[in-house]
Amino acid sequence: MQTGEVLRRVVFNLLDAAKGGKLKKLKEVNKREIAEGVTPEYMERRIDLLLDYVKNHSPYYKKHPEWTKLEDFPVMTKGDFLEHYEEVLVENSKEQGNLYRLSTSGSTGTPFTVLCDGDKMNRVNMNFISCMELNGFRLGMKRGEFRAWIKGKNTISMWKSFKNNLVMVDISNMGDDSLEKICKDIEKKKIQVLVTYSSALTALTGYIKRTGRDISKWKVEMVFSMGEALPDATYELTKEIFGFSPVRSYGNNENGFIAIQLGEDKEYTIDLYNFYPEVLKMNSDEPAAPGELGRLVVTDYYNKTFPMVRYDTGDTGIMRMYQDEKGRMHGKYVEIYGRRGSLMYNCMGEPLSIHVFMNTLLKFEGVVYQAKCIQWGQKEYELLVNADRKKLVEEDLIAAYRHYLGEEADIRITYVDEIPIQASGKFMVCENKWDGRK
Fold first, then answer.
1. 0.85 exceeded by the pTM?
2. Phi, psi of 434, deg, nearest 5
3. Domains present along the chain, CATH in parentheses
4. Torsions phi, psi of 416, nearest 5?
5. Other beta carbons within 10 Å of 145
6. pLDDT of amino acid 48
7. CB under 8 Å to 254, separation ≥6 — which residues?
């Protein structure tokens, strides 16, 4: 246990206690409800309160008083929310101030920012801590967050990094030189928790195994996997290398963590305290049959600024709901699919994280609606772009992609009105059609 960890935990608890211990209470309730389930009455009450709220405060839902139960409300994709963005926002929300931005481009390649108030932001943060603590995390532990960090867009200040004991681990490039630097940083900075996307964890563990790197001096006690589904091979290799299993999670930037793996349970336990989950048929909004693969749809109980009722996450999976002997409800994602982007390579043949392409699009929010990068050859790339051409500066877009693909990248732009989706109901932000790397 490191001194910095203990100090931060003490300071957090003291500051929270001075404000009535709100965050600690929220965290403990969240942990209990995830682990022990919720009552059917809680789920019914939360839905009723939310639907009543949106019909009174959101212009989009106000127009439809005939929608009385959840099934009456439309299933909304990211594109639907963007189309009706100003209408969905509750009245006078922007004038109230103190709003937070939950931004994502997602694997569908569509930039999207959800506004929320301080209460929802606290719930997002405590939800994250709750999911971690249920798997052994201690508040204040030094964690390395693996992302494609973009200066001026998603990086954090030195003060915030110090306060949260967080190290920004850049995964823009996952070539051997970059992976070696990441390994050195993990050891030198005594990182205790790796919070990483599946693709980055796959690259890191593969590198450690392939090079026989000595990690005996590492202080890593926990590996937390998020984003795209973690392959079983990576799960087992992580367990072999570190001596403990990685934690699988499921969520998004718009809502927070939706489900978490507890212990060695291969299923994901759904957070029924914060969300109402549904699985709908692939080609209709009818409920999927038990055990049937369908679209993952969630209703967020607590975003009172930008209500997300029946949000189609773009992912697919299988869910089961059951009631225990105490009458409490539990939800499990038996399988989660989606977010399976093709592995892309830069001009030097080094693999790139799918999140490079996601985060690049954040720079062009409001100008580029959709974009997909296709690799046709070692240095040949095509950008399918659905954008406002009057506002878009082509040179800036190409430069943003070339920053990661390499200066020798031959990038051509093809403008489209819409990027075709896959049979799963999604399209990926990148695709590799180069035979040399398939």
1. no
2. -90, 115
3. 3-141+221-336 (3.40.50.12780), 344-437 (3.30.300.30)
4. -135, 155
5. 22
6. 97
7. 102, 104, 112, 114, 308, 311
* Rg over CA atoms, the chain: 22
CA angle 115, 117, 120 (to 5 degrees): 95
Both structure tokens of 359: 């985060």
For 128, list phi and psi in degrees, rounded to 5. Answer: -60, -50
Q: At 14, is the secondary structure helix, strand, or coil?
A: helix
Of the candidates 275, 250, 26, the residue with the CA atom closest to the CA atom of residue 126: 26
Q: Which helix (H) or strand (E) holds 53?
A: helix 40-57
With tokens 């963007």, the residue in question is 82
What does residue 411 show for φ and ψ, rounded to 5 degrees? -115, 125
pLDDT in tens, 95-115: 777 899 887 755 555 678 899
Of 92, 120, 80, 81, nearest to 300 by C-alpha is 120
Token pair in block for residue 412: 């051509």
According to DSSP, the β-strands at 256-261 and 268-270 are antiparallel
Q: Using CA of residue 28, residue 37, residue 229, residue 366, what is the dihedral sign?
A: negative
The tokens for 129 are 């801590």
Burial string for 234-263 (b: 16+ CB within 10 Å, else e) reads bbebbeebbeebbbbbbbbbbbbbbbbbbe
